[in-house]
Write a structure and sequence with these properties.
By secondary structure, the protein is an alpha/beta fold. Helix content is 23%, strand content 27%. The protein is built from 11 helices and 18 strands. The chain has a 7-stranded mixed sheet. A 7-stranded mixed sheet has the order 10-9-8-11-16-18-17. Helix 6 packs across helix 7 (214-221).
């Protein structure tokens, strides 16, 4: 059966990947028949309505899914297609309460014209009561216009099967969240990332850069049990009586929260075993301050410092020494960690920034044990960030002749030396000056 998905026209490069992740999660065979990032309308083929409901119920980048009743470049073509496709279905809804609505993209019709268009479908023979609120059936006329055009270039008719999860954005908006920081991930992108990572009941998820818990909360919404860690103990401990637990309590998700702990990914206390179903993170970009990991700059061990007869490093408020860390090395450490801890088919989703120029185009990190599933881009002015999603391969599918794309693990030096993106960021992404010619 063919269905129309009504997308929101934002985060365009994420929309297809979101549907594909849901279809893969539920083992549903889905085929894209017509998709363009420039259109809010997508036509897909699915086995049945149950499959359509399962896919759309997780989506935050769509408004709903509709059984496709017809399409055309003109209304004459649309009416012909409706009769061809659905004349055998009209009797099923003859006595149902119903309503018609018009959704126009990049245009708006006067009310009188809308009523005239709705009346043009009276041949369907519906006799049930018109009910604008909570009808049994909703039929939507979709119009798609070129910018500035007075007539639509494409029209569709669809019967609503189910709305999406987009209304939950108001529940999880950061404007209402009790524990925040300047780096808290936007709720829409957090839910989207959890969706692409396939958070679901019966799964265990981990965020190694947990901050205020945006990703674990998103994973918990989809039913996964989650935990996190952060090198910054202040984020984990919270402040002024609020912390990550406060946020989970706010959304009544405490039964989905394991705990958070203070740790550095390169010195993790987690046992080396493949027990995680998903790893989801937005690692620090090292812009406000250079990236650091635990350890001393010279690499040597320090003598124990004693305070009031007790070793300083065993006291509650001890701050361990840190050393500069390469951004590229961090990305590969995340992939190495994922390869060691994800179950077969488990997913890793991580955000990475890049400047919008070839000079600082960071290579997408790869690993022989991880398959890239999707690459989505959120563009800003002079820089972008990409959401990379990987799948853990089974042992027999790992190609041992495919090396990891590792840069050398640079340590020491300045923050700019270890992070080309940071350097370009503070240079304002300006073009480098031309070389001086001799003579």
């Amino acid at each position: 059966m063919e269905y129309l998905v009504r997308f929101v026209q934002m985060h365009e490069s994420f929309r297809k990947a979101e549907l594909e992740a849901s279809a893969d999660l539920y083992g549903i065979n889905m085929e894209f028949l017509n998709y363009s990032q420039y259109s809010p309308h997508c036509i897909i083929r699915l086995p049945d309505e149950d499959a359509a409901r399962m896919i759309i119920q997780r989506s935050v980048l769509s408004k709903g899914i509709y059984e496709l009743w017809g399409s055309g470049s003109t209304y004459a073509e649309l009416h012909q297609d409706v009769e061809r496709r659905t004349s055998n279905l009209w009797h099923l809804y003859r006595l149902s309460s119903f309503k018609f609505e018009i959704q126009a993209y990049q245009a708006k019709r006067p009310l009188a014209e809308q009523n005239e268009l709705i009346q043009s479908f009276r041949y369907t023979g519906f006799e049930g009561p018109i009910q604008l609120k909570d009808p049994q059936q909703t039929f939507s006329i979709f119009e798609e216009y070129e910018w500035g055009s007075s007539e639509p270039t494409r029209v569709y008719l669809g019967r609503l099967v189910q709305g999406s999860s987009r209304p939950i954005l108001d529940t999880y908006t950061l404007k209402k969240r009790k524990y925040l920081s300047t780096t808290s991930m936007d709720s829409e992108l957090a839910l989207l990332t959890a969706n692409l990572t396939q958070a679901a009941p019966g799964k265990l998820f981990y965020d190694p850069f947990v901050g205020t818990g945006s990703f674990p909360i998103a994973c918990a919404h989809f039913g996964a049990v989650s935990m996190g860690s952060d090198i910054d103990g202040r984020a984990v401990r919270g402040k002024d009586g609020v912390d990550i637990i406060t946020n989970f309590q706010q959304y009544n998700l405490m039964d989905k929260y394991l705990d958070s702990f203070i740790a550095d990914l390169t010195h993790t206390p987690l046992r080396t075993a493949r027990f995680l179903d998903g790893i989801i993170c937005d690692p620090p970009y090292g812009v406000r301050e250079g990236l650091k990991v635990l350890g001393s700059k010279d690499g040597g061990k320090k003598e124990i410092t004693w305070v009031d007869g007790k070793a300083a490093h065993l006291q509650d408020h001890y701050i361990p020494p840190k050393k500069p860390y390469s951004f590229e090395a961090m990305l590969h450490d995340i992939l190495d960690f994922a390869a060691l801890h994800l179950v077969d088919g488990g997913r890793l989703s991580l955000w990475m920034p890049t400047a919008n120029d070839e000079e600082v185009e960071l290579e997408i990190p790869i690993h022989p044990c991880l398959e890239i599933v999707s690459i989505c881009v959120q563009a800003f002015n002079k820089w972008s960030r990409r959401l990379l999603t990987y799948r853990r391969l089974k042992h027999q599918d790992v190609k041992n002749d495919q090396p990891s794309r590792h840069t050398k693990k640079e340590e020491g030096g300045t923050a700019n030396d270890l992070n080309s993106f940071r350097k370009r960021y503070f240079e304002g992404f300006k073009e480098p000056p031309p070389p001086i010619k001799d003579g």
